[in-house]
């Protein structure tokens, strides 16, 4: 199989059919599962193709190497989590509401895809470039929204500093209450920490009070302050 990979190096692997797109997607989902369970070092193309139910030759039609499929898994997770956050945040009537809803979207995604944590953390060592792109893309969207909110007088803080700080808050609290949940004090916090849980409402409320003060905003932070949605 090494020969196959070398022979196809540099070849355009963009799917040309709907079936090819579905197959490539299946391999990415399998890679997400295998990297999350085994880690990058122990994962193999054989395990990924077995998980996807495809042959190794099919793998090389779409990916050049294990590193490439890892980097594209990071990018795929990044795209999906940003979509979850931005779709949820778009329903907010002001920046603080948008922050809360965006965090709710992030925590829901984390509960459904706990692999996000292990894979992104491994990227620090496997592909620092992929790690930087992951965080930078999230921050770029944050800075844009926070800049507009500052210009509109909704918040009073530096958008770039606030964006990195908010991202850190969400990631750490998500790890503690969503990824670890009730297992935080038990020591049973392996790669995927067993079953994940929802972010407790009281934790989210306290987090938003902290964020509201930090952003210098007087906007609504708790769901009780919002009008009922139709």
Automatic annotation (TrEMBL):
Q: Which InterPro entries match?
A: DNA-bd_HTH_TetR-type_CS, Homeodomain-like_sf, HTH-type_TetR-like_transc_reg, HTH_TetR, Tet_transcr_reg_TetR-rel_C_sf
Q: Which Gene3D superfamilies match?
A: Tetracycline Repressor, domain 2
Looking at the UniProt feature table, which residue ranges are given for the DNA-binding region?
A: 44-63
- The segment(s) forming the HTH tetR-type domain are 21-81
> What are the boundaries of the region Disordered?
1-21
Entries under SUPFAM superfamilies matching the protein: Homeodomain-like, Tetracyclin repressor-like, C-terminal domain
The Swiss-Prot or TrEMBL record annotates one GO molecular function as: DNA-binding transcription factor activity
Q: Keywords, A to Z?
A: DNA-binding, Transcription, Transcription regulation
PANTHER family, per the entry: HTH-TYPE TRANSCRIPTIONAL REGULATOR BETI, HTH-TYPE TRANSCRIPTIONAL REGULATOR RUTR
Q: What is this protein called?
A: TetR family transcriptional regulator
């Amino acid at each position: 199989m090494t020969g196959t990979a070398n022979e196809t190096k540099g070849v355009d692997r963009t799917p040309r059919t709907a079936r090819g797109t579905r197959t490539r997607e299946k391999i990415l989902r399998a890679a997400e599962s295998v990297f999350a369970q085994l880690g990058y070092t122990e994962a193999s193309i054989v395990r990924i193709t077995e998980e996807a139910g495809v042959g190794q030759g099919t793998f090389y039609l779409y990916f050049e190497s294990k590193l490439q499929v890892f980097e594209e898994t990071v990018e795929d997770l990044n795209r999906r989590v940003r979509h979850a956050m931005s779709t949820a945040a778009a329903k907010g009537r002001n920046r603080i509401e948008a922050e809360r809803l965006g965090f709710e979207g992030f925590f829901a995604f984390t509960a459904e895809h706990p692999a996000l944590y292990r894979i992104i953390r491994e990227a620090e060592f496997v592909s620092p470039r992929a790690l930087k792109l992951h965080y930078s893309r999230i921050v770029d969207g944050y800075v844009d929204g926070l800049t507009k909110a500052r210009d509109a007088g909704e918040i009073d803080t530096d958008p770039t500093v606030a964006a990195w700080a908010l991202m850190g808050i969400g990631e750490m609290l998500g790890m503690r209450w969503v990824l670890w949940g009730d297992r935080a004090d038990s020591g049973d916090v392996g790669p995927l920490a067993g079953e994940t849980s929802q972010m407790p409402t009281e934790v989210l409320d306290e987090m938003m009070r902290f964020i509201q003060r930090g952003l210098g905003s007087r906007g609504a932070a708790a769901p009780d302050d919002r009008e009922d949605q139709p």
